[in-house]
Amino acid sequence: MDNNNAIDINKRDKIRFIKYVIATVIAAFVSACALHVFVYPADFVPLGLEAVVTMLYSIFPSINAGYFNLLLNLPLIIFAIIRLNKKYVFFSVFFTLLSSLFLILLDEISFPQYLEDERLLAAIFAGIMLGIRTGLMLRIGSSTGGVDIIAVMFQKKFPQVNIERIITVICLMLIGISYFVYDDFNCILLGIIQMFISEKATTFILKDTRKAVKVEIITKHPERVREDIVINLRHSATITKGQGLYSGEDYYTVVSVLNLYQMADLINIIKGYKDTFVFYTEVQGVFGNFRRYKDEIVK
């Protein structure tokens, strides 16, 4: 590797690190606001270890919730430092420290809280905000600590177990336990609503915003189809050779990933070929060099 490439890689790593730090700061602030503004005044528990923090804060309101958050996460953080990936642990610890600090500061400055009777609105907005913070942390390959760390460690010992199922079961157990703290069945319903909305918000953040479609074209005219895709749609494609199971004749499969709005143009192209059909599915996400070529000829 030459010096220029080494410098470029080092620069990219620094830029990526700065982006991750910014994302973690935003996630921590959003998390603290969701808890302070919506969760604590509405008397229900959020998902994760913060459910325990919220219950302790409800029992001991004179102690800032930020201290409970630090205290409960500390043993998990120590264990994670020993057992888990360093990058994962670093940003998880950074998030935990920041979110705890923000909780302390918001309480110290008497930041406004949602004190209306509409507890359902509090659960909805708390779910959206907590889902956003979780999505941001997952996008950088880390977590919000707490239950996530427990689940990762559990999966390392039992890799055949679904980690999402572990987290869901733990969260539902904590929500159920909250009834004995608040003596209110509504707190369980609000906690479940918040958890459901949070998961939807997390999925939205993680989902790639680029709408793309994977197309597979079965044809006897691969070169002509390739030229139409390259020249008219300005995308590349991959061609593989196969054989018809019934006819025994040679066929070719042309695979490409296109933008959603290009499907109508592709269908019109395929109509010009006999013995050709196409099937396609919307992809969940796209990573890498997915773009329309601006050159007249795609190399």
Oligomer: single chain
Annotation field: number of helices: 11
Order of helix and strand elements from N to C terminus: HHHHHHHHHEHEEHE
Derived from helix and strand composition plus strand pairing, the structural class reads alpha+beta
Principal-axes shape call: elongated
Distance between the termini: 26 Å
- The value of Rg in angstroms is 25 Å
Total discrete domains = 2
Largest sheet: 4 strands, antiparallel
Low-confidence stretches: 295-299
Q: Helicity, in percent? A: 55-70%
Strand order of the largest sheet: 2-3-1-4
Q: Would you tell me the overall average pLDDT?
A: 82
Number of strands: 4
Beta-strand residue fraction: 5-15%
Notes on the protein architecture:
The protein folds into two domains: 3-206, no CATH class; 212-282, Alpha-Beta Plaits. By secondary structure, it is α+β, with helices and mostly antiparallel strands. The relative contact order is 0.12. The chain has helices spanning 3-42, 50-59, 65-83, 86-108, 119-139, 147-157, 163-177, 179-182, 185-206, 222-232, 263-270, and strands at residues 212-219, 238-243, 250-259, 277-282. It starts with a helix and ends in a 17-residue tail after the last strand. It has a four-stranded antiparallel β-sheet with strand order 2-3-1-4, covered by helices on one side. Helices cover 62% and strands 10% of the residues. Mean pLDDT is 82; it is low at 295-299. It has eleven helices and four strands, in the order αααααααααβαββαβ.
